[in-house]
Design brief:
By secondary structure, this protein is of the alpha/beta class. 50% of the residues lie in helices and 8% in strands. Helix 4 links the parallel strand 1 and strand 2.
């Protein structure tokens, strides 16, 4: 479904091959459930066989995920998207983010279902001064000096403060245990010759989420 040739063949319209594949999967899953219901407890389609079939389908078909991009303050647009998905009961359990998107998905994946409505209501009005502290902005000379010394314009201490206040010292594993949502944060490598890393409860269970952001 992600093969580049499918999308280079035609740049407009739907991909009929993918649609037919999805329809076939849905029919197969429906048939499994119907056969299992008709047979009762003594049939060949036992609960174990049914579960194995569903797991095999998920393995080959994949799972829905939400990917939140970067974009500085444009990252707040993600809140509206997430709120709509949540209200429609369509928010995936797997959420990934980079840059500004990692801020949003980190907060979402550390909150339980009961806490989610309040988080979505108040998130945009909280402390989001990740670049500079209001009333204590850095001047151009200080930014220039920091850029020459560290290669960055802004002090990362502001982002660290905001994220620690929002999340506390919670790890990827602890967040997963608490919410059952799977948080993924992509991290650029320090070296030019290394690939970016994907941090989650499997690859980095003991990493503090605020530090990944």
């Amino acid at each position: 479904m992600g093969d580049l040739r499918l999308y280079k063949h035609s740049h407009i319209g739907t991909k009929a091959l993918i649609e037919r594949y999805i329809e076939s999967v849905l029919k197969a899953l429906t048939a499994l459930l119907e056969i299992s219901a008709k047979q009762g407890d003594d049939g060949e389609m036992t609960e174990r066989k049914l579960l194995d079939s569903l797991l095999a389908t998920r393995q080959s078909f994949g799972r829905s995920a939400l990917l939140l991009s970067g974009g500085a303050t444009f990252g707040m647009n993600h809140i509206g998207v997430v709120k709509t998905l949540w209200q429609a009961r369509l928010l995936p359990r797997i959420i990934s983010g980079a840059s500004a998107g990692s801020i949003v998905c980190a907060v979402l994946c550390t909150k339980t279902d009961a806490e989610m409505p309040e988080v979505l209501r108040s998130f945009c009005y909280g402390d989001l001064a990740v670049f500079e502290k209001e009333g204590d902005e850095d001047g151009m000379a200080k930014k220039a000096a920091r850029f020459l010394k560290y290669g960055s314009l802004f002090d990362i201490a502001h982002l660290t403060r905001v994220m620690r206040n929002m999340l506390g010292d919670i790890t990827f594993q602890e967040a997963y245990n608490r919410t059952r949502r799977i948080l993924n944060i992509t991290v650029s490598s320090a070296s030019l010759y290394e690939l970016p890393r994907l941090l989650n409860y499997v690859t980095a269970p003991n990493v503090m989420i605020w530090s990944a952001v």
